[in-house]
Amino acid sequence: MHTQCPTTPSKTCSACKITKATSEFYAVTGHPDKYVAHCKHCQCATSAAYQAAHRDQERARKKKYRETHIAERQIAQKAYRIAHAATLRTYYQAYNAAHTSKRRAYDKAYHVTHIAEKHLYNKTYREAHIEEYRARDKAYAAMHTAERALRHKAWREAHVEERRAYGRAYSETHRTEKAAYHHKHAAHIHARGKAYRIAHAADIKAYRLAHPEMTREHSARYRASKRGVTVERVNRAEVFARDGGRCHVCGHKVDARRWHLDHLIPISCGGPHSMSNVAVSHPICNQRRSTTGPAQLRLFG
Fold this sequence. Notes:
With 301 residues, the chain is mainly alpha-helical. Among the domains are: 10-100, no CATH class; 200-300, DNA Binding (I), subunit A (Orthogonal Bundle). It is 63% helix and 7% strand. It has a two-stranded antiparallel sheet. Strands 3-4 form a two-stranded antiparallel ribbon. Strand 3 (25-27) and strand 4 (35-39) form a beta hairpin. The longest helix has 16 residues, at 212-227. The protein is rod-shaped, with a radius of gyration of 40 Å. The mean pLDDT is 87.
């Protein structure tokens, strides 16, 4: 007795006229034999030819669909990412490893050509998620206090001149705002400064001994700012060179290591702290003249 082998279901493609197994056709409901008329190969070729011939129309159709189904697409994409998280992670890791140089070049070119768009997007996103940013930054700062302190210290030491220039420019352009802030928070600023001086008394003393000229300059600027007079940056070396190292009171040479920067019109009398209102003097001549004497005549030649 012979056993008949089961035959594989087949179907003839209406396009290429070749009889193939039904596995070579897409299944479809509602069709008499449950399969489409064209085989998969002919179906793909027909679709590719149509898309090539109607590329602009297809792009416009897909763009319109994306614009009119934003919410549905976002929900579907999110659900897909959640359901296939492990697969997507593996795929992206493999792709990034295989296309590192290509991705870097693309990202660099994109950043250059979309600077304005990126800034606007980042600004909008930060404003919409400000609380999340603050919480994240606060948590990071708490976990990396020592690292941040070292990094900031290194940056400050490497950009001393830039920081000084920026500070001077900012002070000049925001003089009114700074004065208003100091007036409004005078008590707090005073208390904070006093606490700092007490806590760092030894460091302050050592700095003053190591930088006497800077200390004198700071003292003069502070007294002038308290009087509300003009405060400019005064360079002692330039003043010494300008006056030839001679005391403006007695006319004799002064010791380059021990001399006073005398204000022609004293700060206490409303004189400004500026290059035009200072001169070289012996310490004793400055102390004898005090806030009186003929020094003011020098302002008039």
